[in-house]
Write a structure and sequence with these properties.
The chain is α/β, with parallel strands linked by helices. 38% of the residues lie in helices and 15% in strands. It folds into 2 domains: 13-204, 3-Layer(aba) Sandwich (Rossmann fold), CATH 3.40.50.720; 229-432, Rossmann fold.
Length: 433
């Protein structure tokens, strides 16, 4: 049961709906201002932990949590007190890579049930252009009985939280804001300026703000896809991709992207929202879908490199003992959602390999449950192959332990090339993207 103190409705009360990677830092920031702030999440365990100063993502410290006057609750009745809502819930894709808007729609239903006349609802979840006004507003109207632009208003402010990045924090990045009327835009901008010290950029309309967000990660996705395709080509030429990039990078205007697995809940997801919207408008995307095709293929390519290395060592992938180091989607972050190494693991198991996982950021139970493989943190140990999938800081310091895992010819698939010195070592068969 929620034990937070109830207070009567008052002006300038912010409610952040969804306390994940995006919502929590935002809610905490508002909680440090003179604006009364309610942090709402449907997960009761999440609320209980936050009240104790515990953030399971380990992105926010106990000190930071307790320094905010934020009110935590899983009781939607508290939302009646707010007149400025910020919706920050996940927007994933389904198994067919189609947008899954169910959490945003559910959050809109919840807000609609408790919204008061005159309130503003701002969405931060990544969506396709038009989603706020075309998909969310009708839900707000239906569940509130209020009329849009008469009784309530909406806006959009794309999130720019980068998990694991403690330099580009909420306070230090420019925030894009937009509203459905000049007055709502003015209020939204003024409200966000309270916590975004780098300032705000006012987009001319909500669709523009939505489009800006979805192309930020689409641009990165396409650039990484180019690097991945170059890796596929250079591998056939027996050229080291990273050495090529080092040489090309000496030019002042060369963009420094590198090959890798593209997972997570942003770069590997957001482009599909734009592709979906384009398709509904009768346009078939070519560049974006090509980039997605390449990046979605890379987990299979990791398997190919592993199998290739084992064959060179005179071994078969069937029955091979393979260690996968790093299971999260990104280095130094606990989040394993949409981690593409999971695809590689499934394929290796289908081929008969004995796969073992090691990730210092995940507990053994999570590894067993989410990746369906046993866990080890005992190195050195004999393996036929080691796949270094996620370059955690700890792994960079573990080269000696990795070297000592040699069992005859050890195959090392170094996805992000953190052990380049091993490529000339005669005891190892070294592969990288």
């Amino acid at each position: 049961m929620d034990t937070s103190d109830k207070k009567p409705f008052q002006k300038n009360v912010v409610a952040v709906v969804g306390l994940g990677y995006v919502g929590l830092p935002l809610a905490l920031a508002f909680g440090k201002t003179n604006i009364r702030t309610i942090g709402f999440d449907v997960k009761e365990k999440r609320i209980e932990d936050l009240k104790k100063g515990i953030d399971h993502t380990e992105e926010i410290t106990e000190k930071e949590i307790k320094s905010s006057k934020l009110v935590y609750t899983s009781n939607p009745e508290y939302l009646k007190q707010a007149n400025f809502f910020i919706v920050a819930v996940p927007t994933p894709v389904d198994k067919k890579n189609e947008p899954d808007m169910s959490l945003v729609i559910k959050a809109s239903e919840t807000v609609g049930k408790y919204i008061q006349p005159g309130a503003i609802v701002v969405y931060e979840s990544t969506v396709y252009p038009g989603a706020t006004e075309e998909d969310c507003v009708p839900v707000l109207e239906k569940f509130s009985g209020l009329k849009w632009k008469k009784d309530f208003f909406v806006g959009y402010s794309p999130e720019r939280i980068n998990p694991g990045d403690h330099e580009h924090t909420l306070e230090k990045v420019v925030k894009v804001v937009s509203g459905d009327t000049p007055n709502s835009t003015k209020i939204i901008a003024a409200t966000y300026k309270k916590v975004c010290k780098a300032g705000v950029h006012i987009a001319p309309n909500i669709k523009t703000a939505e489009a800006a967000k979805v192309i930020e990660n689409t641009q990165r996705d396409i650039n990484i896809a180019l690097m991945n395709e170059l890796s596929l080509i250079f591998h056939r030429m027996h050229i080291n991709t990273n050495e090529v990039l080092d040489a090309a990078g000496t030019k002042w205007n060369f963009l420094k992207f590198t090959p890798g697995l593209v997972g997570g809940h942003c770069i590997g997801v957001d482009p599909y929202y734009l592709v979906h919207k384009a398709k509904k408008l009768g346009y078939k995307s070519h560049v974006i879908t090509a980039g997605r095709y390449i990046n979605d293929y890379m987990p299979e390519y990791v398997v190919q490199l592993t199998t290739e290395g084992l064959n060179e060592a005179g071994k078969s992938v069937k029955g091979a003992k393979i260690l996968v180091m790093g299971l999260t989607f990104k280095e130094n972050v606990k989040d394993f959602r949409n981690s593409k190494i999971a695809v590689s693991i499934c394929k290796l198991k289908e081929l008969g390999a004995n796969v073992i996982g090691y990730d210092p950021l995940l507990d053994p139970e999570t590894i067993q449950k989410e990746f369906n493989i046993p866990h080890t943190d005992t190195l050195p140990a004999p393996f036929d192959a080691i796949i270094v999938a996620t370059p955690h800081k700890k792994f960079i310091k573990m080269q000696k332990q990795v070297e000592e895992c040699a069992k005859e010819k050890l195959v090392i698939v170094d996805v992000k090339s953190i052990y380049p010195q091993l490529k000339t070592h005669k005891s190892y068969i070294y592969k990288n993207l």
